[in-house]
Amino acid sequence: MSVSGVKDKSDTPVMRQYKSIKERYPDTILLFRMGDFYEMFYEDAITASKILGIVLTSRQKNQENPVPMAGVPYHSVTGYLKKLLDSGFRVAVCEQLEEPSKGKPIVARDVVRIITPGVNVEAELLESNQSNYLCALSIGKHDVAKGNEGDMFGLALADISTGEMLTTYLEDISSLTAELVKFDPKEVLIPRGYPQFEEFIKGKLPDKAVTSTGLFEEYGDFQSALKKIGEITGKDEGNGDIYAGRLNPLCATACAVVLDYLSTTQPGQPIPIPRIAVYRASEFMILDETTMKHLELTSSTWGEKKGSLLWLIDKTITPMGGRLLRSWLIKPLMDISSIRRRQDAIEYFVQNGKTREKIRYLLREICDIERIISRCVLKTATPRELKGLSETLTILPSILEVFDEVGQTEILKGTNDLFGSLPEVPSLLTSKLSNAIVDNPPNNTREGGIFKKGYNEELDELDYLSTSSKEAVASLEAKEREATGIQSLKIRYNKVFGYYIEVTKSNLSLVPHDRYIRKQTIAGGERFVTEELKQLEEKILSADEKRKNLEAELFSQLVGEVARNESSLRKVSAFLSTLDVICALAEVAVLSGWSRPVVNDSGIISIKDGRHPVVEAIASPDGFVPNDVCLDLDGERVWIITGPNMSGKSTFMRQVALCTILAQMGSFIPASQAVIGICDRIFTRVGASDNLSWGQSTFMVEMLETASILEHATRKSLVVLDEIGRGTSTFDGMSIAWATAEYLLTRVGCRTLMATHYHELVELSSMYPNVANYNVSATEFGDKIIFLRKVKKGGSSRSYGIQVARLAGMPSEVIERAKAILSQIESGRDKTVSIERVSKTKAKAGRDGETGIGSGDGNQLNIFIQSRGIGGENKIRKLLQEIDIEKMTPLEAMNFIAHLKTLL
After folding, report:
1. What are phi and psi of 37, to 5 degrees?
2. DSSP H helical segments within 593-729, as ranges?
3. What's the CATH number for 460-550?
4. Which CATH architecture has domain 598-810?
5. The pLDDT value given to residue 863
6. I need a surface site. Which of 100, 384, 489, 653 has the fewest CB within 10 A?
7. What DSSP character marks residue 716?
């Protein structure tokens, strides 16, 4: 039952008011404040009752069409809001704008804010160490006449809770996907008319809200977009021309859409977005969706922070420091001088432990300034948050004093660009906040008790009357007894007469009739009032409401004062968050024994005694075995790594990638020493998984990821490949792995680590001087295998699969049968064996007497069988001789291999 579809003349004034407001916000769930509850009606009530698990009742039950209704208590609305947002809904919060009064038939109400998954400033609904981005994507087409095809994009991201806004132009869908996965926005706005693109975004960002909007059409014109940007950010007298030379038209449109969307969610309030940071994706190492997942940068395989690299290195203390650390991790730098500035600062705090400990101790007193500033601008800050800001500003001089002392040291003199100039402490604001807020303030203004005594004289008087009414009445009672001589005189109160003076019959002759006004005669005497008592009554009865109103007004003024200091407070926040991250990375380096790498443009990745940071942190008591690596664009740039399953090949390759990322984010790394030549991008193809929702098998996922690597890798990239081709038949897989390695070596020329069980690939080193063979060693002890975890020069001829199967607990009967089959295969000429020969070695009878593996159809054991006939071999040989692999694209190579398969 929709609101618009209901025409009911019997609607009460409140329901007419509700419908009027709901019509303005049709795409939201409207929380309509009625006393101590937020009520929902019609479809909103039906939807919310299912999501929130609350009772669905009805209003006007006796009518022909009762109105569905559901409600939640206002004081516990936060949990319900979270459920609605997590389900992708937009929520409009409609508040009572005045207190109910007898003279008014209806209380004034209006929507004060709209909360969406991407527009959220509610402290209880936000993750403290993670940004909450709203994203807009404008879409354009490349100029086909200029030889370009496909879509191009303008990406804008804003976090209203912190005041951060970013934008960049992206050339293709691959670059867009990398940025989306990196920033993980909670809500994405896209133009109308792109249903396939909407599905694509939902596939890449599952459980995130995707909204189609006509705002992109409204701001498709460059000038109209600039005007909106200027209106919101307040730049250049409101016309936005300051961005005209910096913004791509697509970016301008995306920014305008984001800012317009934000402004509609905060009716009548300024938007706390002071500036837009324009960046280029090429300023940072590109980490795509697959790489971030395979390397477990921000979340583990199970989707949790624990077990990820971020979990290990996040020793930050402040919430904004935690958010900045995540930003540094997912955006490793390409600029060597910027990397070295971070390294210099970290090195100082590594070498000066006492200073680091002192700063980290002081940082424990720091609140989330960044988000409190935004909430002050939006006028939603709480007394408790202002108290936290007050304590932060009070401790700030101590932090600045420590930093000012160390900042003069030689090692930190070059880090000014990193920290910026030391922020000035807004002393007047600090003093005002310190003098204003009590030590333990309430979490909202309606509770009262926000301000210290002495802050405001009128408030002190009202507070006294409100909280000390008994004392005030007793004081007047004592005064009247003395003035009249009536010792039994009492001042009482009831709801009918209010406050009155009661005198017994025996004392009526003492009543001063010039001051006392008779109100009522009772059996035992009479009741009176005086002008002084009337005034006291008015003060007492109105004092509480006046106190609340005055406190709210004073608090609003204080919040406004903080908002006026937004610029200086954001500088304070930026300084403290940077200091927090630097000290945290220094703490990690000291605790974990990490060293400073040399970062340059050499084309070399040389790591001595490298370790996997996370695996080392949770390793078994025997510890982690370190390994060396040296990839050189002008030397051994491709490593073919063989060795048993479970020997540590994947861990070794991942640690090289992680060390490279850590180095380029400016951190120390888990190694005794290292040289890291800048990488523009890291690609990984590790592990196997289906993508059933997209109808893709494990092998198809593997091929898609590999194809993407071959298409986008450059000479400056680092490629990590684990078991390419294992998802298909042996010869197909080996051929694909071989061709992939050759393509990366000869066409791309990048640094590559390639683990494989196809031992035939070791022959590449005899054909190409830039290929080297390495193996992760293991040794046999009886029927057992011992993994040595050490990477050594040379190839490995065995995979020890049966020994690993034994470790996994496979039945001994299966193990013994596998050993017999392997023995037969290995005894054959050129390591091939006929089906008939293996079949003759019968397996032991099973429980039901049937024969086992060896007795089945011979075609079920097609292991390393030679090609079908001499004719097939000759055709394949001829095709290989004729083809020019130097001129083949990755797709052509894949198709060629598929054709060869048909000839086998």
Report:
1. -130, 155
2. 613-617, 649-664, 698-712
3. 1.10.1420.10
4. 3-Layer(aba) Sandwich (3.40)
5. 33
6. 100
7. T
Q: Which fold has domain 126-283?
A: Nucleotidyltransferase; domain 5 (3.30.420)
State the DSSP code for 437: B
Distance CA 860, CA 504 (A): 113
Q: Which of 150, 182, 152 is nearest to 166 (CA)?
A: 182
Supply 830's token pair: 């050129």
Rounded distance, CA 263 to CA 114, Å? 10
For 13-115, give the CATH class.
alpha beta
Q: How many CA atoms lie within 13 A of 200 on its CB side?
A: 11
Between β-strands 525-529 and 517-522, what pairing exists: parallel, antiparallel or unpaired? antiparallel
Question: What are the distances in angstroms from CA 215 to CA 140, 195, 596?
Answer: 15, 16, 49
The residue written with tokens 């004092």 in the block is: 543
Cα separation of the two ends of the chain: 65
- Which residue did the predictor score with more confidence, 866 or 620? 620
Q: CB neighbours of 183 closer than 8 A, spacing ≥ 6?
A: 131, 133, 135, 157, 166, 330
For the chain, how big is the Rg over CA atoms in Å?
A: 37
724-766 residue pLDDT tens: 877 666 777 888 889 999 999 999 999 999 998 888 889 999 9
- Using the predicted structure, report yes or no on whether residue 831 has a pLDDT greater than 70: no
Q: Which residue is associated with the tokens 């990839």?
A: 631
Instruction: Give one DSSP letter per residue of 339-376, joined into a string.
Output: HHHHHHHHHHHHH-HHHHHHHHHHHTT---HHHHHHHH
The pLDDT, as a whole number, for residue 495 is 72
| Token digits of residue 621 | 């008591």
Q: How confident is the model at residue 829 (pLDDT cuts 50, 70, 90)?
A: very low
Predicted structure pTM score:
0.82
Distance CA 651, CA 686 (A): 10
Tally Cβ neighbours within 10 Å of residue 239.
15
What share of the chain in percent tops pLDDT 70? 81
Quick: pLDDT tens for 662-704. Answer: 999 999 999 999 999 999 999 998 765 444 334 456 777 778 8
More confident residue, 825 or 561: 561
Other CB atoms within a 10 A radius of the CB of residue 552 amount to 14
Which DSSP state fits 171? S
Token pair belonging to 219: 């701001």
Structure tokens at 511: 């009543």
CB 772 within 8 A of CB 741: no
The reply to whether 126-283 and 598-810 are identical in fold is: no
pLDDT recorded at residue 133: 96
For 73-119, give the secondary structure using H, E and C. EHHHHHHHHHHHHHCCCCEEEEEECCCCCCCCCCCCEEEEEEEECCE
User: Is it the case that residue 878 has pLDDT exceeding 80?
Assistant: no
